Amino acid sequence: MSVFQLLNGLTFAALLFVVASGFTLIFGLLRIVNLAHGALYLFGGYIGFTVAARTGSFALGGLGAMVAIAAIGFVLDQGLLRFVRGHDLRQVLLTLGFAFVLDDLALVIWGGDSFTVPIPQMLRGGLRVFGVFYPTYRLFVLLTGVVVFAVLWLLLNHTRLGALIRAGVDDAEMVEASGVNIQRVFLVTFLLGSALAGLGGLMGGAFLSLYPSADAEILVFSLAVVIIGGRGSLVGVGIGSLLVGMLNTIGQVMFPELAYFVIFGPMAVLLAFRPLGLFGRPA
Amino acid sequence: MTGRAALIAIIVVAAAASLPLVLSSYQVGLATEVLIFGILAMSIDILAGFAGRTSLGHGAIFGVSTYVVVYATAQAGLPPAAAFAAGVLAATLVAMIFGLLAVRTSGSYFLLLTLALGMIVWGICLRWTQITGGENGIRGDVRPAALLNNNSFYWTVLAGTAIVTFAVWRFVRSPFGLTLRGIRDSESRMRSLGYNVPLHLFIGFTASGFFAGIAGALYAMFNNFVSPSTVALAQSVEGVLMMVAGGVGTLFGAFVGAAAIIALENVVSTYTERWQMVLGVTFIVIMIFAPEGIIGKLNAILMRKTR
Amino acid sequence: MNRRQFLKTTTAALAVTGAGSWRGAHAQDAPIKIGLLAPLTGVVASGGKEMVEGVQFYLEQVNSQIAGRKVELVIEDDASNPDTALQKARRLVEQSNCHMLIGDLLANTGLAVANYVKGTGTPYFIPIIAADDLTQRARIRNVIRVAGYTASEFTHPLGDWALKQGYKRIATISQDYTFGHEQCGGLAQVLTEGGGEIVQQFWHPLNTADFSPYLGQLADLKVDAIFAMETGADSTRLIQQYASFGLKKTPLLMAMNGTDQSVIRTLGEECEGIISPAHFAEGSDNPVTAKFVKDYEAKYGKIPSLYGFSMYSGMMWIDAAVKKIGGKVEDRDAFIDSVLTTELVDSPLGKTVKFDAYGNPIYDVYIRKVVKRADGKFWNVPIQTYPNVSQFWKYDPETYLKQPPYSRTFQGIKKA
User: Fold this and answer.
1) Domain ranges within chain B, ordered by starting residue
2) Which of C42, C210, C216 is facing A208, going by the closest CB pair?
């Protein structure tokens, strides 16, 4: 495995981490399998694309995507999901219905052509890393992934909100019994998780491009990451992302015929021994 | 009671059998689809309604059967009956593998896991080009010559559906089915009573896969064609939606749900290509306002009236 | 089809049955019903929209009249999904009683519908579906490729062109399905028979998010040129990532769909200079082509893609054939014969096109290059022409048909 392929795996893993960390936060704390997460990613990408193209600023695109997707997340959580709290199946199917609506809406608004988020001048071109020429933007994605991990880690481990979230993942009722307004913690987590999907959409939209069905693809990868990592575990998502990112690269290079199997096969084997994933706790 | 149930069953089947007399050829085709997808939805209901576990991987089990039947007739030259049996057997085997991996989980994990397992099947069908034809799928004259006519095929499927439905009905009312219900209501109690919970779920999953396989084999004969979209997640989702729309745990609701969704799709897509949005909104509305499904809702209304 | 159209049809149908006696005359008055299948949702939705535009653009120009009969277009969305395509085809044939079907974009949808109409006998026209065998080893009489092409038809001459440029060592990367196998096979066979070498071939699944693993390997091969066969979003990504990994110093050859307007419309300089073969080049200076492109742009605000062009020309071909039989599309045999013997005279290609003996059009094939237009948009401009290219290139059809169809395992590669 060359340095080049290693970097490919790592950059893809970084993007997966950003998207899947949002998924696992929501899954971990609210117990919601949010199948609209992929659609939020795609919608965020489109919005980021539009903002970045209009204003010429990649940073504004990112901000726009995060704010807009957090807002859509707010509608989803407060407008719809609140009616089905506590029902696994109803929640899942509701988010799936929501994903259908978002996807079709994106098709109406952006028309189904594939778009690529414009990359700022300073991130274009390539750099020489460990003797190989590598696109600067991808290295930026890698860096962003690391930064997001660090920020989330600090948030979870060194703030009051983080402590509440961690406690809530283990036992939400206990937290509520101790007089904390758990509903507010839920909401903040949902918005944060959605915003991460939006950010992922912008980042991915610049090198994987945006098109109908991109949502399902990223969702499937995220599911694999979360299943491997386990519910609500940040470290789990980190390791899961690295695993899936590297397996994806190895699969495409060495076993092109079995590309999907190389990702999901190990996942299935892992589950046979650890049904809740590497770092999962019973729901 | 059984006399009355039998009478109702006879009336329903007779009514369904007379449909081709009033419907156009195309509508008979749709009715056939309702029956096939009704069986798929019912097979999901065995797990969802009676064991408390909803599978998002049944589309893949269904589709494996479709693939095997089309391959066996079009490429391997097997007679229809043998191909049919091979398809159902393959689906049952896949369900056993799914079951082995999935029965130790419940709730959201079960959903996620079955979804991911279904994705593996989809990935294999997409990439194993030599056997599955990859993206293009496989075509052939699968349907036996005697059933080429839309009406005769419909009646055959109807007869099959009646038998399968009766079998499923007996299955969930058997002592085994009652145990599954016990697991649904309280897993820990069943465990402390000495029941082997994973084993029961495994058998339940396998039986459910067997019935989904029958639906898939019929679908192969209906379409004479199969491609990865038949095993895709959307297929599983559609099956679950039909089951939920009819009513979880009502078994026969599966057919009502299938009819409702297929009719909706056909009516709506005549007027707009925004069908996907309508479907999405339907999902949301059902989940919020009628989670008990059409049959469940009707039951509730009837109960209130009689009281 | 909207409600109003539906009501109109119903009334028309009632009028016909109600009048009774002069049935023949009334059949002539009734509209010709054409069922259009296009992916309006799903992965290739934007292409589907342009297919509809191409058909409507043509019908508008003829006032929705063919051979004195009104044309009624019934549009159905195949959702980029073969199961849906099949269901919609059933509806168009059995419920809407269409006289003919036209359309579908993805090969899997087209093949599913072809398999169905084999049983019903309904004429089905496929300007976009390029699967080789539909006009080669597995012909279906009522499935006709008006204004379409076989996948390997244009990559044969591309192979020849590459040899003449001195591109002896070529690697290919392609979507892993029949359309890709066939296009790569065409190039590989001509190239290797002329003394070139296919260094390596990469096959990736449709909708590959990240091409970097493949690009890394391609860069290591040190080849003279790279041939890429991509459609839709995959093509967008490949072109972009190819440029961002600094591979542009190696010439990039693509299949015609790779640099189609539907792809390069949203791209910038990264697509400049890519070579592709095709029968249509929107940047051609042929006056007829130029006028078509100008009119289309004025109407829809974009340069026409392959999809818009092919459906437009396909409708024109059908129109000519229907005129020859005086509008009697109900006589399917006569209609199909008429289509097969009709020559397409006034198409936007600016040249007459006719079928070969196997029902596949013979074209002058352009080698095209993507260049920047004065207004900053990119388009394909012809740089060389191969006249009268059939699906069999320079081979004898019968010998050619004895070799297996191109697939992942058979690429027609001649061992050196």
Assistant:
1) 23-231
2) C210
Q: Is residue A109 part of a domain?
A: yes
Question: What is the value of ipTM here, to two decimals?
Answer: 0.86
Question: Is B127 part of the contact surface with chain A (CB cutoff 8 Å)?
Answer: yes
Nearest CA in chain C to A253: C213
Return the domain boundaries, chain C: 31-125+288-350, 155-284+364-402
DSSP state of C415: P
CATH number of C155-284+364-402: 3.40.50.2300
Contacts of C82 in chain B (CB under 8 A): 137, 225, 227, 229
Q: Match domain C31-125+288-350 to its CATH number in 3.30.565.10, 3.40.50.2300, 3.40.50.300, 3.40.30.10.
A: 3.40.50.2300
CB–CB contacts below 8 A, B to C: 77
Tally the domains of chain A: 1
Residue C69: strand pairing partners = C66
pLDDT per residue as tens digits for the range C227-283: 999 988 899 999 999 998 888 899 999 999 999 999 999 898 999 999 999 999 999
Is there a shared CATH topology between the C31-125+288-350 domain and the C155-284+364-402 domain? yes
In chain C, residues with a C-beta closer than 8 Å to the C-beta of A211 are 43, 232-233, 236
Residues of chain C with pLDDT under 70: 1-28, 416
Q: What is the DSSP string of chain A?
A: --HHHHHHHHHHHHHHHHHHHHHHHHHHHH----TTHHHHHHHHHHHHHHHHHHH--HHHHHHHHHHHHHHHHHIIIIIIGGGGTT-HHHHHHHHHHHHHHHHHHHHHHHTT--B-PPPPGGG-SEEEETTEEEEHHHHHHHHHHHHHHHHHHHHHHHSHHHHHHHHHHHHHHHHHHTT--HHHHHHHHHHHHHHHHHHHHHHHHHHT-B-TTHHHHHHHHHHHHHHHH-TT-HHHHHHHHHHHHHHHHHHHHH-GGGHHHHHHHHHHHHHHH-TT-SS----
Say which of B105, B112, B240 has its CB closest to residue A223.
B112
- Per-residue pLDDT tens over the stretch B6-37: 898 899 999 999 999 999 889 999 999 999 99
Cα radius of gyration (chain A):
18
